[in-house]
Amino acid sequence: MKIWYDACTGKHIRYGTAIGRRLREAGYEFIFTTREHPDTVCLAKLLGENPIVVGKYNPSTLCSRLQNSAERIIEFAKMFRDNPPDVAIAHQSVELCRTAFGFGIPIILTADTPYANATNRLTIPFAHSVVISEALPKSFAKKHCARNIITFKGVDEVAWIKSFKPTKINDLKKPLIVIRQIESKAAYAGGKDDAAHSLAKKLSELGDVHFIERYNGSGKAFGVKESFVDSTNLVANADLVIGCGGTIGREASLLGVPSIGITDMAKTNVNRYLSEKGFPYFATTEHGVFTYAKKYLGRHFDVKEKLAALENPVDVIEKVIQSINPL
Predict the structure, then answer these.
(1) Are 179 and 243 within 8 A, CB to CB?
(2) Domain 176-308 has what CATH class?
């Protein structure tokens, strides 16, 4: 049985790697694809994966987004014309959904961003099953015409954090504060201010700040960064993590590293869920960051039992595959 996973970002690479390892062990043939993106190919190589690179990511204009997406769909159609997969899985890859739907292939989606309206509209209606955290209201998927909604006790990042073994980085200055920029090129971030640079300067009073750029300093040469950073391993070595409410903050809190989220995205269902479960995730405003930083800097939390109690979504995805097309 052949399973296809398409990864569009670094987070998807980690998710796809976790799913791929499980499915290969179970005897499935696993096809892993990705696109050119600042965080995909480098991270895949670091994780020991060699996905097929199809197309690229250039969201500089609406036209470039549309054209790049269409080109990927055409390439996928050619790739699977004579030998399509049996099941397709993605964390809402638009191109995977359109291709698999066209071939009549059942689609399993994971999703955790109700505010990503464009992506939700372009993916969820195509899915056979949508696997989401119990933190999210089912209405989120239902309003986008999801046919089969399956919830799990946890968040998506549990899929790779449960088995993650960080390595010590010896040349870091302490205390270490990690700050990551907002995903300014994403459709859902349109118009939002990026305060990361000013925050980094202010927080340097408290410790050594490691600034993780999404692209490059100017944002003009899209997709160019000075160097690739394994952000998950970096935050595991950090004393405080600050982001805009996305993956890096949840990864940190699941590892027991205090994480502060700013902007409205920090107040999402999955982030509140982790806070309520006792993980060190704190949502505030740009103006409140310094106060929170002084309070939580260097306070590592023991969350091993809490993490063990959460459900791995890969377990759920494997069961859905078995229900669709058993080996």
Answers:
(1) yes
(2) alpha beta
CATH T-level assignment (fold) for domain 2-159+311-324: Rossmann fold (3.40.50)
List every span in the chain annotated with CATH 3.40.50.2000. Answer: 2-159+311-324, 176-308
CA atoms within 13 A on the CB side of 78: 7
Token pair listed for 189: 């971030």
CB count, 10 Å around CB of 286? 14
* Strand-pair category, 176-180 with 149-152: unpaired
8-state DSSP, 188: G
Q: What's the pTM value of the predicted model, to 2 decimals?
A: 0.90
Give me the amino acid identity at 101.
F
**What are the tens digits of pLDDT across the range 251-285?**
999 999 999 998 777 889 999 999 999 999 999 98
What Å distances lie between residue 129 and 42, 208, 311, CA to CA?
Answer: 30, 44, 18
Residue in the block written with tokens 């920090």? 266
Q: Which residues contact 217 (CB under 8 A, 6 or more apart)?
A: none
Beta partners for residue 240, in sequence order: 177
pLDDT tens digits, residue range 70-79? 999 999 999 9
**CB 166 within 8 Å of CB 236:** yes
